């Protein structure tokens, strides 16, 4: 009643004394209607109606009180009004904070760029809000600084692709622009980039963007052009283009180029292999892989030849395509040779000697290292007590074509083995064939009873047995569980087939390997 009767001071005092927020709010409404804004704002504040209080403090220009209430104010409009006032007063940091609370992000960006000289904060807001207008402001800021790469980045973000492209052209920044648009550009944008690089005589880059635009013919033309990059990248990209196109005419065009029909320079056979793989022509890829591996093997690049055959073997198996016997046989021989170093390092000279005997029996496959391999075979067999085998290969080394090539430190020892032969040698232990259970010498990979080729352990090189079967978690080849799990406990256990690390915890004993044996038989090209 005091307020209605005009005794505002007494009425406000009574309202404050009651502590009743609803009563205080009702009195504030009454005072606001009476244009008593200072008293109304105070009662709104006491009743915790912060937005109403702040709105009235703004009308009375009491910015100090507005600032005190801001953390409890939810109305963006009030934050925006406070921000404008602070900006007009030159309090730019307070203004930027208030604009952000008001969700007026473009104003936050503008204040940080124009007044606070804080582009990092402006960039943060643009990235978080994806504001198109804000991105334009940031782009202009960087353009004025001469930082065209950053300017283009924000022009792209603000959907001003044409402006960004023009900037890239004007300042020779097309590669940076291409990197900025990445995989998000339109076909027309990719074509524009490609044509720019054609005009600039950068044909590899032109090919890349014709490919992104789906223009496979133009992409291939630029990749195999005589002035394109000659470091192998162009051929790799040409293969990708033809693989995507699945076009017979383009395929023949690239094959002619790889064979040297186009420029008289035959390319490395590995590219033909990769082309067939890209086209998923696995039989042709397999034949090419065998040729590549044979060349590597003849040159003494055994690990490289091994890896080519292994990758092709795995691909054929994954696609359930028959594996050529020559590929299986060559991979097995190369793997046996690689196992020699593993076993020598572990001090297992008996197993190393067995692997060397296997390799030495096909020594014509290792023409670059005939004498060193035969010499190692003699030395390891002698160490392992395989005296008869040592004598056989020592006698082979005495042939005129080999004798003068023997390492001097082994020559006398080898000559002595031949002069005083000791042909004692224990018979190799036999273990059951995994197909028919007939006894087969441990390192023999063919069962004369059931006429099957036998799977071999990738660690020992021995043939597999059903009761001791595991599969490597890295290459999926089989291994003898007892031996492989023991090897896995060493600190540097690596898959002998692909060189990747593994642990004993990953190995499990396979109860019935019949499915593996069945698949092996089905995929064998015998």
Write the layout of secondary structure elements.
Layout (H helix, E strand, L loop, with lengths): L7 H11 L2 H13 L3 H10 L3 H10 L3 H7 L6 H13 L3 H10 L3 H10 L4 H11 L2 H14 L2 H10 L3 H10 L3 H8 L5 H13 L3 H10 L3 H8 L9 H13 L2 H12 L9 H10 L3 H17 L3 H17 L6 H21 L3 H12 L9 H15 L2 H11 L2 H4 L4 H12 L10 E3 L6 E3 L27 E3 L6 E3 H8 L25 H10 L3
Please state the CA-atom Rg, rounded to the nearest Å. 40 Å
Poorly predicted regions are none
Q: Percent helix among the residues?
A: 55-70%
The DSSP helix count reads 29
For the report, how would you describe the main beta sheet?
2 strands, antiparallel
Principal-axis shape equals elongated
C-alpha end-to-end distance:
110 Å
The helix-and-strand class reads mainly alpha
Q: Strand order, main sheet: write it out.
A: 1-2
Count the beta strands: 4
Mean pLDDT: 86
Strand % is: under 5%
What does the model show?
This protein is mainly alpha-helical. The protein contains 29 helices and four strands. The chain has helices at residues 8-18, 21-33, 37-46, 50-59, 63-69, 76-88, 92-101, 105-114, 119-129, 132-145, 148-157, 161-170, 174-181, 187-199, 203-212, 216-223, 233-245, 248-259, 269-278, 282-298, 302-318, 325-345, 349-360, 370-384, 387-397, 400-403, 408-419, 481-488, 514-523, and strands at 430-432, 439-441, 469-471, 478-480. The strands form two sheets. It has a two-stranded antiparallel sheet with strand order 1-2. Strands 3-4 form a two-stranded antiparallel ribbon. Strand 3 and strand 4 (478-480) form a beta hairpin. Helix 11 runs antiparallel to helix 12 (161-170). The longest helix is centred in the middle third of the chain and has 21 residues, at 325-345. It is elongated. The model has no long low-confidence stretch (mean pLDDT 86).
């Amino acid at each position: 009643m005091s307020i209605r009767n005009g005794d505002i001071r007494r009425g406000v005092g009574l309202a404050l004394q009651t502590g009743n927020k609803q009563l205080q709010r009702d009195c504030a409404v009454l005072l606001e209607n009476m244009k008593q804004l200072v008293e109304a704002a105070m009662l709104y504040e006491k009743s915790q109606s912060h937005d109403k209080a702040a709105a009235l403090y703004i009308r009375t220009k009491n910015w100090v009180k507005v600032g005190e209430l801001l953390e409890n104010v939810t109305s963006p409009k009030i934050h925006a009004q406070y921000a404008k006032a602070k900006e007009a007063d030159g309090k730019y940091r307070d203004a930027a904070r208030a604009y952000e609370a008001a969700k007026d992000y473009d104003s936050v960006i503008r204040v940080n760029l124009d007044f606070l000289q804080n582009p990092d904060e402006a960039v943060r807001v643009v990235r978080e809000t994806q504001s198109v207008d804000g991105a334009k402001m940031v782009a202009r800021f960087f353009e004025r600084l001469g930082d065209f790469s950053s300017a283009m980045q924000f022009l792209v973000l603000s959907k001003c692709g044409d402006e960004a492209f023009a900037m890239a052209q004007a300042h020779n920044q097309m590669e940076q622009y291409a990197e900025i648009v990445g995989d998000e550009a339109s076909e027309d944008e990719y074509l524009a980039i490609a044509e720019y690089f054609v005009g600039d005589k950068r044909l590899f880059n032109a090919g890349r963007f014709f490919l992104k635009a789906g223009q496979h013919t133009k992409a291939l033309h630029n990749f195999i052009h005589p002035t394109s990059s000659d470091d192998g990248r162009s051929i790799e990209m040409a293969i990708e283009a033809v693989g995507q196109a699945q076009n017979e005419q383009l395929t023949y065009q690239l094959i002619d180029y790889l064979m040297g029909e186009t420029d008289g320079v035959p390319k490395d056979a590995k590219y033909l292999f990769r082309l067939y793989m890209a086209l998923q022509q696995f039989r042709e890829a397999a034949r090419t892989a065998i040729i590549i591996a044979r060349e590597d093997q003849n040159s003494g690049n055994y690990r490289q030849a091994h890896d080519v055959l292994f990758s092709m073997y795995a691909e054929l198996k994954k696609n359930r395509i028959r594996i050529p016997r020559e590929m299986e046989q060559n991979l097995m021989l190369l793997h046996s040779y690689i196992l020699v170093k593993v076993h020598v390092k572990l001090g297992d000279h008996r197993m190393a000697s067995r692997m060397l005997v296997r390799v030495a029996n096909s020594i014509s496959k290792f023409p670059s290292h005939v004498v060193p391999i035969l010499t190692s075979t003699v030395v390891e067999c002698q160490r392992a007590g395989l005296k008869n085998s040592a004598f056989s290969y020592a006698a082979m080394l005495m042939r005129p074509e080999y004798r003068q090539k023997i390492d001097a430190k082994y020559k006398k020892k080898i000559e002595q083995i031949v002069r005083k032969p000791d042909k004692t040698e224990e018979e190799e232990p036999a273990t059951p064939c995994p197909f028919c259970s007939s006894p087969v010498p441990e390192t023999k990979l063919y069962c004369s009873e059931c006429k099957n080729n036998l799977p071999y352990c990738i660690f020992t090189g021995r043939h597999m047995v059903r009761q001791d079967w595991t599969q490597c978690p890295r290459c999926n080849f089989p291994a003898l569980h007892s031996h492989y799990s023991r090897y896995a406990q060493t600190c540097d256990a690596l898959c002998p087939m692909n060189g990747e690390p593994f642990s004993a915890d990953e190995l499990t004993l396979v109860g019935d390997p019949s499915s593996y044996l069945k698949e092996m038989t089905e995929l064998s090209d015998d």
